[in-house]
Amino acid sequence: MNELVLALAVNGLVWGLIVALIALGLSIIFGLLDVINVAHGDFFMLGTVGGLVVATSTGSFWIALAIVPLIGLILGAVIERLVIRPTLRQASLTIVTTFGLSMIIQEVVRATYGAQPRRMAAPIDGTIPLFGINYEIYRIAAAAFAALFLIAFFLFLNRTKLGTWIRAVRHDPETATSLGIPVTLVTAFTFALGTAMALLGGVIAAPITTVDFRSGVDILPVCFMAVIIGGLGNLQGTVAAAIMLAVLEGVVTSFVDPTTARIASLVIMSVALLVRPHGLFAGATR
Q1: What pTM was computed for the model?
Q2: Which of 47, 51, 74, 97 could be disulfide-bonded to 199 (CB atoms 3.0-4.6 Å)?
């Protein structure tokens, strides 16, 4: 039993790192644009579908891992210009437009890709002994990929000129404008980057989850929970909360069914918000 609990906790850690990557994209979009992006889960779904399609067409998962996030960057820039920017100053309207975008994405994928869930073969075969069971090597690799991309994101945010611009616009857009920072360009790039991160998470997750046009519906609540528990605007807090929630669900799943485990996460979020209304890691990171 102890081995099972440990294995499920490791599963939770792997999934938590992937969710952290996706939730981080959601967090930077909200933190900079004040947009509650209901379609963010569907961007993750596009990553899983795109990863499967590209990997199948080219015969290489690694090509999909390189290409699909770039497609996400372009897609995000187009969506920001055509859908988000016209409604940017009306928060309630952005919810409606991104919800409509979510429905459109799901229907387009269902019509073109199909409604039947599929599985993607892991690009790295084999298992290794872990806590008394044979654990898939790719799951460990997926956790490593997600962790590396998370580190790369924070290095980009803190060590590059564009990252400094993003932090400046998040902190005070009016002052950033007066300093000559191209705020419109920064906001467009930030939405595109958040979108690309969701698609990247989808590609990494594709071999360990079901590739289905409805998978975004399942991932979105977890991402929102991570953003809220982590503290709105706190990027490191979002990462920590995503990992914490996923490990918790992984451990609880060894005792109860997955639905009850998700309910436990919701209870934890409710209690956390009662104790710390601004999140466990309140205070935006600039």
Answers
A1: 0.90
A2: 47
Amino acid at residue number 149: F
- Residues facing 130 on adjacent strands: 133
In which residue are the tokens 């499967």 written? Answer: 52
Could you tell me if residue 283 is left (phi over 0), alpha (psi between -120 and 50 degrees) or otherwise beta? left
Residue 285 lies in a domain: no
Q: What is the CATH number of the domain that holds 247?
A: 1.10.3470
Per-residue tens of pLDDT for the chain, all 286 residues: 576 677 778 888 999 999 999 999 999 998 888 888 999 999 999 999 999 999 999 999 999 999 999 999 999 999 999 999 888 777 778 889 999 999 999 999 999 998 899 999 999 988 888 767 788 999 999 999 999 999 999 999 999 999 999 989 888 888 888 888 999 999 999 999 999 999 999 999 999 999 999 999 989 988 988 888 887 778 888 899 899 888 888 778 777 777 787 787 778 777 877 887 766 666 544 4
- Whether 126 maps to a domain, the answer reads no
Q: Count CB neighbours of 177 within 10 A.
A: 14
Q: Is residue 206, in this structure, part of any structural domain at all?
A: yes
Range of the structural domain that residue 93 is part of: 2-121+134-275
What is the C-alpha to C-alpha distance for residues 65 and 72, in angstroms, rounded to an integer?
11
Q: Contact, 19 vs 265, CB < 8 A?
A: no
Question: CA dist 267 to 218, 277, 281, Å?
Answer: 17, 14, 18
Alpha helices in the chain (DSSP H): 2-33, 40-58, 61-79, 91-112, 137-159, 161-171, 173-178, 183-205, 215-230, 235-253, 258-275
Residue 23 lies in a domain: yes
Dihedral sign, Cα of residue 13, residue 228, residue 202, residue 146? negative
Assess contact for 48 and 205: CB atoms under 8 A: yes
